[in-house]
Amino acid sequence: MAEVRLEGVSKAFGKTNAVSEIELTVPDGAFVVLLGPTGAGKTTTLRLIAGLEKCDAGSIHIGERQVNDETPAQRDVAMVFQQYSLYPHLTVRDNLAFPLRSPILKTPPDEIERKVREVAEVLRIPEKLDNKATELSGGEMQRVSIGRALVRDPAIYLMDEPLSSLDAKLRAELRIELKRIHDELAATLLYVTHDQIEAMTMASHVGVLDHGRLVQFGTPRDIYENPRTAYVAARLGQPRINLLPADVFAGAPSGAHTIGLRPEHVEQGKGEEATVSRVEHLGDQTRLHLDYRGHALTTLTDAHTPLQRGETILIRSRQALYFDADGNRLT
Ligand SMILES: Nc1ncnc2c1ncn2[C@@H]1O[C@H](COP(=O)(O)OP(=O)(O)O)[C@@H](O)[C@H]1O
Ligand SMILES: [Mg+2]
Q: Do 63 and 11 touch, CB atoms closer than 8 A?
């Protein structure tokens, strides 16, 4: 596997700057997750690395090679697309073997069989090898399409929201599987998603994309605890960080425009009055929706809280984050 490096990479479609001046290093062996909402430039970034789009500016390096002028096949990357693209009339075995039968790779048949078996084991679908692709569940199909990337031994795996079409239970299962596969194969992985849980649970490094720009890159914990902007702060954390005018709580530093309070930054039982507007019991936790001086604020409380709508409680902030009028963090 190899390190992948983007230097000043930009790509526009007409007037839309899909990707702007991206500087990014995916270290060898890392599991990097690029996080951003729809339209942030995630797919374009992957397509640029895969060679399916050409950069307007900047350069892309895979290991020692500058690959800007290489074809997708020369670049030696394996991409998993958002919609699984299996050959429905072929068996799972033949779908998995397909990339290895390409004339460029010239893999010997017994090597193909060994590799297909190995990947089927890793994906926990060895008993499905003789099934037609059409006889699989959605989750199994997505495993096979991930498997079609895993049979290869590329410089890097690129994955474009591969779990987004699956139901919640399968997504949770495959998150754990992907993390395990990454550890087992010591693979280099660049994975893009709009799902913060995927970023938090799988990534060794998270990059946050905002309108084509990479606005922060770090460990999931660093991004959560030290967001550079209010936008970044709002990407991670459930319930979402509360962003309120800075002066509604005492103690705002000068220049503060917005106070950012994560649920754990709202201390209960002391301070100023807030009214309970809704109590949301989620089983293992309870979300408390409050009205504080005319502002909505969400925090967490004991799963078995007796609190009810309309009651008054006391709250105060602790270790809040502050942002200036442009959304930049004050430190
Ligand atoms: N082939 C294309 N033609 C025109 N606009 C495109 C094309 N591909 C992407 N875009 C635009 O570029 C921006 C980024 O798109 P994309 O990379 O698909 O974002 P994401 O994957 O994060 O949702 C969007 O505004 C999108 O509409
Ligand atoms: Mg996309």
A: no
